[in-house]
Amino acid sequence: GRMTPPERHLFLVGFRGCGKSTVARLLAERTGVRAIDTDRRIVENAGMSIREIFERQGESSFRDLETAAIAELTDELPAIVALGGGAILREENREMLRRLGVVVRLVASPETLAERIARDAASTSDRPPLTSLPPVEEVRRLVAEREPLYRESADVTIDAEAGTPDRIVATILAEPLVRRLFGHRP
Ligand code: S3P
User: Is 84 in the pocket of ligand 1 (CB under 6 A)?
Assistant: First the structure.
C-alpha cells in the first residue's frame, strides 16, 4: 500500500536499552519520515555528553533540556521521534506527547535491558548512572517505578524482548493506530 506523510509524530518510548534509536532509524527508512533523537539533540545543543550534563549540572537540569527538546518538536511535524527513557517522567512532557502524536512503547525484561545497556556501554554510549544501585538492580527498580507512566503514555505497546529490529518495525507498522497515522491505503 501507499504511505502518505502523517500530520503527527510517531514517538518511541521505553526504558534504556529497549531499542528506541535503532527502531526509529529503521522506521524512518521504511516510511521516508525523518528520525529525530531527542538525546542527540540535547547533546548537540549543550555541546557536551549526557553524562557531562548530569555531572556538571545535575539530572534536573538535564530534564529541563529534555522538556525544551520535546517542546521544539511542535514545529517539526512529522517525525519519528526516539525519546530518552525518562521522557515520560514529567506530566508536562506526557501532555505534549499526547498532543503531538502517537506513542509507541517498546517493552523488554529488566534482564534483557541491563544486558543491552552493558553491551552499549562497552561500545558507543555513555549513559550516566541514575541511582547508586548496581546496574541490574537499577533497571529493575526504575522499570517498576516508571511502569505506570509508560503505561499511561503508550497508545501502542510492542514486545521488544525477542525478534530482530526489522521484525519489531514490521509489527509497529502493522498496528492499526500507526497505519492510520501514515494514512495507509490498501
Ligand atoms: C535516561 C535515559 C537516557 C537519557 C538519560 C536519562 C533515563 O536515554 O535520556 O541518560 O532516565 O532513563 P536512553 O533511553 O536513550 O538511553
Answer: yes
CA dihedral for 54, 149, 135, 24, sign (positive or negative) = negative
CA dihedral 168→173→175→177, nearest 10 degrees, is 130
- What pLDDT, on a 0 to 100 scale, did the predictor assign at position 183? 76
From 12, 39, 146, mutation site for ligand 1 pocket: most ligand atoms within 8 A of C-beta: 39
- The single residue listed with the C-alpha cell 511502569 is 147
The distance from CA 84 to its chain's CA centroid, rounded to whole angstroms, is 5
Ligand 1 nearest atom to the CA of residue 37, by list position: 15
pLDDT at 31 over 60: yes
Confidence (pLDDT) at 122? 84
14 lines ligand 1 (CB under 6 A): no
* Shortest-distance atom of ligand 1 to CA 54: 10
The pLDDT value recorded for residue 186 is 44
Say how far apart CA 99 and CA 102 lie, in whole Å: 9
Index of the ligand 1 atom closest to the CA of residue 59: 6
